[in-house]
């Protein structure tokens, strides 16, 4: 049921780029992306609806390939504030929001 | 201010002692859900509710109960807590998970069962 995220963890230096992938075995209606700082609640980044659209949020963008049931989150020119755990959440035709295991991102100066 | 409020934030209890974690939202959202977060396993859904009096099991419902008598409240009940239910719990609400917009999360409840 849970979507599969990769990689499990990534360490970057400031200014480097990263890609986090999310894939599901089920047909998807939408994909959500959230970021969680240590000890805090997850915070919404963006949602992508079926249709293969790509969305952006500052230097963070994402794509959704509906046919492959995959989404990718792109972090460009990473900053220290990008550190945290990133979760993708998928919604299939049961209209239930299910999250992956998360990707730990650490940005070093 | 739009928010989801969970109480308590921290709770230590003993095995078998019934407890309730409350969740309340002020955004008139129809969809509410409970997740537990454990290291390496991410956010796993316990129960969710599409509207008042409509609830359904998520991926890990064993040992939990919920009710949705009012739109704003969605309490999580542990009738007989066990140590394997020690976890960080989050309540979330949204208008509709499929169409968006975003889901709002409560601040979390860290539960320890000894």
Which value, in Å, is the CA radius of gyration of chain A? 13 Å
Chain pair sharing the greatest interface? A-B, 25 and 30 residues
SSE sequence of chain B, one letter per element: EEEEEEEEEEE
Residue stretches of chain B low in confidence (pLDDT < 50, at least 5 long) are: none
Averaged pLDDT of chain B: 94
What would you call the shape of chain B? globular
Radius of gyration of chain B, whole Å: 13 Å
Poorly predicted residue ranges of chain A: none
Summarize the helix and strand pattern of chain A as letters. EEEEEEEEEEE
Report the major sheet of chain B.
7 strands, mixed
Query: How many β-strands of chain A, per DSSP?
Result: 11
Roughly how many Å apart are the termini of chain A? Answer: 37 Å
State the share of residues found in helices of chain A, binned by percent: under 10%
Distance between the termini of chain B: 36 Å
**Beta-strand content of chain B:** over 45%
Helix- and strand-based class of chain B? Answer: mainly beta
What's the number of extended β-strand segments of chain B? 11
Helix fraction of chain B, binned, reads under 10%
The overall average pLDDT of chain A, rounded, is 90
Largest sheet of chain A: 6 strands, mixed
